[in-house]
Amino acid sequence: MNVQSFGDMAQFLFLRGRSVELNKTLDTLTQEMSTGVSSNLPARLGGDLGFVADLERSISKMDSYKVAAQEAALFSSTAQDYLERINDNALNLGADILSLSSTANDTTAQELASQSMTYLKEAISNLNGQLSGRSLFAGTDTSTSPLESADTMMTALVAEVGALTDEDDIVQAVQDWFADPAGFDAIMYNGSTDNMSAVRIGVNEEVNFALRADDERLKQAMKSFALGALGSQDYLGHLSTVESSALVARAGTELMNAQTSLTDVQSDLGFIQARIEETQTRNTAAFTSMATTLNDLILADPAETASRVEEVQFQLEALYSITVRSSQLNLLNYM
C-alpha cells in the first residue's frame, strides 16, 4: 500500500492558498449581496452583453423623456393657469357690462371702465408670466417679457382715437391699431415671432407650444379690455356720458367674443396636456418593463447568494480549525 505524505511547507502553502480562495469568494458574494448585481455577468449571459447595453441605453433615454415630459407638463399647466385668469376676468366683466348696460348710469360706466383697465393690466401681467425665469408667451425669446405695460398701450390708443367721438369709429380705430404691424406688434410686443421648438417627450411623441402673446386670440382679449378702459374719463374726457356708456357696453360684447376665443386657446392647450399625460403613462410602463427585464438579466438571486455565503463561511471555519490543529501536531505529543 502506497502512502503519500506532504511536507509542512507544502501543507502550509495549500492551506494558505485555499484560505485566499475562500476569502475572495466570500468578498465576491458579499459584493453581490450589497449591490444585488451578479459578479460575473459575461458567464451568466453567455458572453453576450449587447442586449444589456441596449437596455441600459433605452432606460437612460426613458429617464431623459421623463424629465422632458415633467417640464412640459409643468410648462403647459402654468400657461393654462395664466390663461384661465384672463378668461375668467373676460367672462365676469363681460357679463357684468351686459347685465347692467340697460340700466347703467355715468357712475356705473366709469366703474366698469376702471375695472376694464385693472383687468387689462392683469392680462398683460399674465401674458408676461414666467416659469423658472423663462417667459411662457414670448416664443423662442424666453428671456424677454413679451409685452410692454398697459399704460404704454393706452397712451398709444389715446393717440389713435383722441379726436373721435363715434363709438363705431373708435372701435374700428382700435381694431386697426391692433392689426397694424406698426401698431400693437411694433409698440407692445417684444417677444420672438418664432414659436418654441417642439419638445420630445417620448420615443415617437413630441409637443409644440405654438402660443405667443401676439396670438390674435390673445390680442382680442387685450383689445376688449382696452375698449372698456377707453370709456373712462381719464382717457377720453371729451366723450359725453352717453358716448362713454356706449363704448363700455360695446366692450362687453367684445369681451364675450374674446372669452370664446380664449376658451379655444385653453382647449388647444388642454389637448397638449392630455397628450403629455398619456405619454407619461406609456413611458412609465415601458420603463418598468425594461427595468424588470434588465434586473432579471443582471441581478443575483438573494436566496442563492445567502446560501453560498453560509457555505463559504462554513468552509472557512473548517479550514481555520484544520489549520489550528495542524499547527499543534508534533512528534512529542504523538509519543
From TrEMBL:
The keyword Nucleotide-binding is assigned to this record: no
Listed InterPro entries: Flagellin, Flagellin_C
One Pfam family from the record: Flagellin_C
Domain of life: Bacteria
The keyword Magnesium is assigned to this record: no
UniProt GO MF annotations: structural molecule activity
Record-linked SUPFAM superfamilies: Phase 1 flagellin (SSF64518)
Predominant localisation class: other
Segments crossing the lipid bilayer: none
Subcellular location: Bacterial flagellum
GO cellular component: bacterial-type flagellum
Residue stretches making up the Flagellin C-terminal domain: 257-335
Keyword entries, A-Z: Bacterial flagellum, Cell projection, Cilium, Flagellum
Record family assignment: Belongs to the bacterial flagellin family.
Entries under PANTHER family matching the protein: FLAGELLAR HOOK-ASSOCIATED PROTEIN 3 (PTHR42792:SF1), FLAGELLIN (PTHR42792)
Protein name: Flagellar hook-associated protein 3 FlgL
Provenance organism: Tritonibacter scottomollicae
Source species taxonomy: Bacteria, Pseudomonadati, Pseudomonadota, Alphaproteobacteria, Rhodobacterales
